Amino acid sequence: MKLALDLPDGTTPDAVRGYCLLYQLERWLREMVYLELKSHFGGDWWGEAEQALKRSKAGGIPAGRSLQADKRHPHMSTPENDPLWFLSFDSLVKIIFDRKLWRFFEKYLTTKKRVRAKFEEIAPIRNRI
């Protein structure tokens, strides 16, 4: 089935397809991280994610601050309430590649070196879109 869209000037169908694919990938990664950490650490899953971010010395906007900002705008808030959905892509990747947590994700992603190279290739495209 083809969907007809009235796209803004300068927006190509390829850009829309790219956005959709990257959205699906990022959503899958967030769900994978949530499910694996929750199944292994229970209620302390987010504490483990935060520890991974501390070990990586990740900067950026803390997920809690983004979550609070989202709540201040109920007219456009997202249905997700977990801080994981408010992390930057870069921080999400740092959790996945954490030396303590990688073992939970390796079965999905094969080798760190290969996946890291792909994420480094994807990140600028994702950020631009």
What are its keywords?
129 residues, mainly alpha, 6 helices, 64% helix, globular
Can you put this structure into words, describing what you see?
- With 129 residues, this protein is mainly α.
- Helix content is 64%, strand content 0%.
- It is built from six helices and no strands.
- Helix 1 crosses helix 2 and helix 1 packs across helix 4.
- The radius of gyration is 16 Å and the shape is globular.
Topology:
Elements: H1 13-41, H2 45-56, H3 63-71, H4 89-96, H5 102-109, H6 112-128
Helix pairs in contact: 1-2, 1-4
The helix-and-strand class reads mainly alpha
From N to C, what is the helix and strand string?
A: HHHHHH
Tally of DSSP β-strands:
0
Largest sheet properties: none
How many helices? The count is 6
Which descriptor suits the 3D outline?
globular
Radius of gyration: 16 Å
* Termini Cα gap: 24 Å
What's the overall average pLDDT, rounded? Answer: 83
Strand content: under 5%
> What is the percent of helical residues?
55-70%
Uncertain runs are none
Quaternary assembly: single chain
Describe the structure concisely for a colleague:
The chain is mainly α and 129 residues long. The chain has helices spanning 13-41, 45-56, 63-71, 89-96, 102-109, 112-128.
